[in-house]
Structure formats: structure tokens, C-alpha cells
Amino acid sequence: MNWQADSLVAEAQAVDGLTDFGDDSYREPLEQLLYSLEHEAELNDIGRTVLRQRVVDILATRLRVQAWLRRHPEILDEEIREPLVIVGLPRTGTTMLHRTIAADPRVFAPLWYETRFPCPALDWDPAGVDQRVVDGKAEMAAMLDANPDLLSVHPMDALGPDEDIMLLEQSFYSFNIQSFAWLPGFDAWIEARDHRPGYRYLELLLKFLQWQKKQTGKPAERWTIKAPHHLHYMDLVLEVFPDAKVVQSHRDPLETIPSLASMIYELWRIYSDSADPVKVGEQWSRKFARGMAHTMAVRDEGAEDRFLDLWFKNTVSDPLTEIRKVYDFIGMDLTPEAEAEMRAWQDFNRRELRPTHDYSLEQFGFTEEGLARQFASYRERFLAG
To answer: Is residue 252 within 8 Å of residue 383, measured between CB atoms?
Structure first.
């Protein structure tokens, strides 16, 4: 199987006969990623096929985005005003907060199929069948067929709101691909880079999605986006979206990090027959300890008033009370209609309707003492008492 960048670029260009990628900021991370996929990931047949095609899809999407921008330059005039950004360690209730708030029809949120396939086909008809929906449902079904345990870890819905980290992945400036395979070389390289190209491309894709949603008759007042990934680059979030408000959800890392490791491990097992749970634990606990320290520093450097803190135990026990706090924070009325939609969504998506999620700390090389040391400053600041 050919993993050379020129080969994958040529395949992507052949999809629609397009050649213009815009700027070349994607090229160096692409080459670094392909090297790690070929030489480090120990992919099985499914992994080699699926992850290689994922890269081709991203490249083809970038080409298609440029074609749409030439056809409709007004896309760039769209404004992302006062977005609500939801962050926190994984497994802290951010998904529930995000999806519940996204039930408000006045709020835009990226849907899973839109984050996976942010650009429609060149002959897209806003009133017709969107092939991206068909492809998104098929891909998610294939993932669950390959590993049904995923559903016990994270609610999955191709048509539901989801993390914008997959939009960041479209620039190759994200940690999303590391959640599928062991890529130590790429991981070290991408952590050391300036991620402004990724966040600027995220802004562009949100503008494009906003334009698309308007074409289908879905006006809204503001975006709500969420991704634990933003903890690593909170300075760039606030730079690229200068009027953003941030909700940060809190829960003890001794509970969240092992659960995250379990989710990542279940993904690795799909694409590699040698997935190592201890490597998962080492990589992702380190990454999020680093990311949390970064966000705490950003807050201390003058951004504290941009943040609202919520706690997982309150979000689970009384979600609508916590969501009212969010609406007060962003200066938006929680209308009876929006609240009714939120209650309906929560009734339909109760946690007890999904399978149980079983794991242990030891499975991933963790100890309570080790995780407590790694996240000591965070736990002292937000969880003491």
C-alpha cells in the first residue's frame, strides 16, 4: 500500500478533478502523519484501508472547499459571533451539555456527519438528499459493527451534534487521528507546532457550515461547539474567536482519565491487532495534564472572566439548572420552547439506555496516586473540598 504524500494527493485530486488546495499549510503535517501511519501504527488490514482513505477524504474535502469558495466567495463574509465553547476533560459531561443546548433551535452546532464531511458535493442541492448523511450513517454503522463496545463508552449518532475536533482534523492540526492509532512520531511533531493554521481553518469551516445551514433554511443566533481538545490551545480559541464565552466542566481526573483511556483503546483495537492499553494510558494522561495546565495558565493571564465553571455532579443531577447558568452567562433567554426541546432530548438520551462501560485503572497502567500527582494543581484548584 502506497503511503507517499504525492500518491494520496493525486487520488484526492482525481475524486472531483480539482487541483487547488489553497495554501500549503496541510502538506508538512500530512507527510509527518503518513510516515507514522506506515511505520509506527502497526495497522491491521482494516486500519490500513480505513485510515488511508480517511486521509484521502480530508484532502478531497480541502479541494472541494476551495472550489466552493471560488463559486461563492460570500462564504467568507459569514461571521461567527459570540460562540459558546464547551471544554473540560473528557467524560465530564461536556457531551450532554453540548447536545442539550444544541436542542435549542436558535443555536447552531456541528453535526457528526458535518464534522466528518464538512463540504458537500459540488452538485449539492440543499433541498435534496445529502450523500454525506448516507456516508456518515454507513461509516458509523461500520465502526459499531467492528467494535460494539464503543456505544457503551460514548453516545454515537451520525445526525447528532458532535465535537469540532474533526473539523480541526481537516487541517491535520489536531490530536484526533491519535485516537485511532499509536502514532508517537506524529504526536511529538504536532505537539511542537504552532496550531494557528488549524484554528484558522476551523473558523473557515464553521463559516462554511453556517452558510450551508442557512441555505437549508436553518437560521440561528450563535454557535455552540465543544471539544476537550481546546484545553490544549485555549489561547488560540480566544485569539481566533475573540468574543467567545467558555464553559468549563469539572470532574476528578481519577474518574475521567481511565474512562477516556478505555474509549481510546476501544478505537485502537479496531485498527490494530497490537493495541497496547498501557501506551494509551501514558499518552493521553500526559496530554490532558499538559492541556489542563495550559488552560489554567490562560485563565490566570487575564481571561478568567471569559469562563463559567460547572461541575459534573451538578450537571448530571440537575442539568437544566446548570444550563440556565450557561444562558445567563452568555446573555441569552432560555425560552419555554427551547427548554421543552432540551427535556425531550434528555428523555430520549438517558445514560441508562446505553450499555454499561467497564474498565479498571490497572488495565491502562494507572494508579490513583500517580494520577493524583499528575493533576495535583488542577484538583487543588477546582476539586478540593
So the answer is: yes
Closest CA to 47 of 263, 265, 268: 268
CA–chain centroid gap for 25, Å, is 20
Identify each DSSP E strand in 79-182 by its residue range: 84-88, 107-108
SS3 for the chain is: CCCCHHHHHHHHHHHHCCCCCCCCCCHHHHHHHHHHHHHCCCCCHHHHHHHHHHHHHHHHHHHHHHHHHHHCHHHHHCCCCCCEEEEECCCCCHHHHHHHHCCCCCEECCEHHHHHCCCCCCCCCCCCCCHHHHHHHHHHHHHHHHCCCHHHHCCCCCCCECCCHHHHHCCCCCCCHHHCCCCHHHHHHHHCCCCHHHHHHHHHHHHHHHHHHHHCCCCCCEEEEECHHHHHHHHHHHHHCCCCEEEEEECCHHHHHHHHHHHHHHHHHHHCCCCCHHHHHHHHHHHHHHHHHHHHHHHHHHHHHHEEEEEHHHHHHCHHHHHHHHHHHHCCCCCHHHHHHHHHHHHHCCHHHCCCCCCCCHHHCCCHHHHHHHCHHHHHHHCCC
Predicted local confidence at residue 124, as pLDDT: 95
User: What's the Cα-to-Cα distance from 187 to each of 232, 241, 264, rounded to whole Å?
Assistant: 13, 26, 15
CA distance 367 to 371: 6
Model's pTM, two decimal places? 0.92
138 close to 201: Cβ distance less than 8 angstroms: no
Alpha-carbon Rg for the chain, nearest whole angstrom, is: 20
The CA distance from 188 to 228, in Å, is 19
**Which one has a higher pLDDT value, 365 or 100?**
365
How many Å apart are CA 350 and CA 363, to the nearest integer? 28
List the beta bridge partners of residue 84.
224, 245
Domain ranges for the chain, please list them.
5-382
Q: What would the pLDDT profile of 249-282 be if each residue is shown by its tens digit? A: 999 999 999 999 999 999 999 999 999 999 999 9
**Across residues 313-319, what is the average pLDDT?**
88
- Say whether domain 5-382 belongs to CATH 3.40.50.300: yes
